[in-house]
Specification:
The chain is of the alpha/beta class and about 500 residues long. The chain is built from 18 helices and 13 strands. The strands form 3 sheets. It has a 7-stranded mixed sheet, with helices on both faces. The protein has a 4-stranded antiparallel sheet with strand order 10-11-13-12. A two-stranded antiparallel ribbon has the order 8-9. α8 packs across α9 and α12 packs across α14. It is globular. The relative contact order is 0.12.
Length: about 500
């Protein structure tokens, strides 16, 4: 029986080889063989566990170093004085050397230490002891939340919205709305369609709310999710299409203008993930730097958007808006409780109590920058992207995967160059940079923030040196994060799943 199963699996896998990336086919075969051997052959699982543990030990060493002798495992018997506590905090912050240099930007899109961060810190301090759960007690906090929602909604031509803790929660809220809308229509096994380039937050949202996620390929020329592709995956249980504006993989804006009418004709939703491109794409559009592309509620058929303020909106972390095309769709996310001992209870989002300080700092950021400030941000970003693209294209052996709309510059090795982009990424890591690397195809991404206005010359020097090193040492192996992506295309999914789960555990260890 085992032999028959293996033969059937092999036939099925090999039959798809002509249609797939050979590395993907090999990974499928390898995964099937490893799973079978791990279950059927004594000792194999032990070998697999040993290799996994070795990889996890390297990750833990990289994250924790030689340990933290000053770690707190229990609540101290006596509290620290204010001065001693702040001194300790300053010492801990001093460890962020890469971030301070601008090479390790860490997802902070506005410039650290600027006047806007002073505004944020002051606003946070003023409203630290507030709770949005009590609008009658803290009316200013209610004002901040409502106005941030209104300003963001107006920017993308929406109807109404919800202020969330970040892009993931905004996407969770949108998926919840579509699931509830589907249930009202009698769809008990809903699904959504996204592109393989979509952010993993949509996978998490669908997992949380028991919505099947169908991942479609991108157009091989434009790297977009297109109506022609989506049509192949639509069925009677589809409740929504998920598009990116832009995606984090390549900075590409999916064909929202084409997907909108398709969603409208099928009477399903269309969510536009504008988390990464929030504020940036809107202001590139206002400055006529987006090639006339439309991606928001001005496109008929768009029903929800997730728009982050804590990226190009310039606010502190913890702020995003889920924008809706109608109050009725937004209301489907609410979960009123009225028959318990506590009495009546309802909150706008997944959270209950929320700090008014986050909302105050976000409101302060938007009010400080204003329309003129965001227009300047878009122009500055565009100039950095143009220069970075020119640099990459001037280096022998490198090219741009696809012309991005914003945020990400996707760099690959030219065909026939013999170069490995993961080796180049490893060299950039050794020079202090933490650049994004992706797979299928192998790509090195520069995610542009305010800091790159100051460090782009150094980036150019280091990427030229990295390419020269790889050319001189072609047999080296990737190290660090680049090595993980370099091997992920062949590591069995079951092994990757375990490593990623335990990665989270390692990050939470003292």
């Amino acid at each position: 029986v085992e032999h028959a199963v293996c033969v059937i699996v092999a036939i099925n896998l090999l039959s798809s080889a002509s249609k797939s990336d050979p590395r993907k086919v090999w990974k499928k075969i390898f995964t099937a063989v490893v799973d079978f051997l791990g279950a059927a052959v004594p000792g194999v699982q032990g070998v697999l566990d040993g290799e996994k543990n070795k990889a996890l030990a390297d990750i833990e060493k990289d994250m924790h170093g030689d340990g933290d002798p000053d770690a707190n495992l229990i609540i101290p018997a006596k509290g620290m004085s204010k001065d001693a506590l702040l001194k300790k905090a300053e010492a801990l912050k001093a460890q962020h050397t890469g971030f301070k240099s601008g090479k390790k930007w860490g997802g902070i899109y506005h410039e650290p230490g600027s006047e806007v961060t002073e505004v944020q810190a002051k606003m946070w301090g003023l409203f630290n002891s507030t709770n949005s759960l009590y609008p009658g007690v803290f009316p200013s906090v209610r004002k901040f939340e409502a106005e941030v929602i209104a300003m963001t909604t107006n920017m993308v031509n929406g109807s109404c919205g919800l202020l969330s803790s970040g892009g993931t929660e905004s996407i969770l809220l949108a998926v919840l709305a579509y699931r509830e809308q589907g249930l009202k229509r009698g769809i008990t096994s809903p699904n959504m369609i996204c592109c393989v380039t979509a952010h993993p937050a949509i996978f998490k949202a669908c997992k949380y709310f028991n919505v099947e996620l169908i991942k479609a390929p991108f157009d091989p020329k434009t790297f977009q999710l297109t109506p022609a592709i989506v049509k192949k995956y639509l069925n009677r249980n589809t409740v929504a299409i998920y598009a990116s504006a832009p995606n984090f993989s390549h900075g590409v804006l999916d064909d929202v203008e084409g997907l909108g009418p398709l969603a409208q004709s099928k009477k399903i939703g269309l969510h536009v993930d504008n988390c990464l491109g929030g504020f940036l794409l809107s202001y590139l559009q206002k400055e006529n730097l987006l090639n006339g592309r439309n991606f928001d509620f001005s496109v008929p058929g768009v029903t929800t958007m997730s728009v982050d303020l804590h990226k190009y909106g310039g606010s502190s972390k913890g702020c995003s808006v889920c924008v809706f095309g109608s109050p009725e769709l937004r209301a489907l996310t609410y979960v009123p409780s009225f028959d318990g001992c506590e009495g009546l209870y309802v909150t706008p989002t997944i959270q209950g109590s929320r700090s008014g300080a986050t909302m105050a700092a976000c409101w302060g950021s938007v009010m400080y920058k204003g329309d003129a400030g965001y227009r300047k941000m878009a122009r500055d970003h565009n100039s950095v992207m143009v220069k970075a693209r020119e640099i990459a294209e001037s280096i022998d052996g490198l090219e741009i995967l696809v012309r991005p709309e914003g945020a990400i510059l996707p760099i690959i090795c030219s065909k026939g160059s013999g170069l490995d982009i993961y080796l180049i990424a490893s060299q950039m890591e050794k020079r202090g940079w933490n650049l994004f690397t992706g797979q299928n195809p192998a790509v090195l991404g520069l995610c542009v923030g305010d800091v790159h206005l100051k460090v782009l010359d150094e980036w150019e020097k280091d990427i030229r040196a990295s390419v020269a090193h790889v050319k001189a040492n072609p047999n080296e192996k990737p190290t660090g994060n680049a090595a993980v992506y370099g091997s992920a295309s062949t590591i069995p999914d079951t092994l990757l799943d375990g490593i990623l789960r335990e990665y989270v555990d390692i990050s939470l260890k003292v």
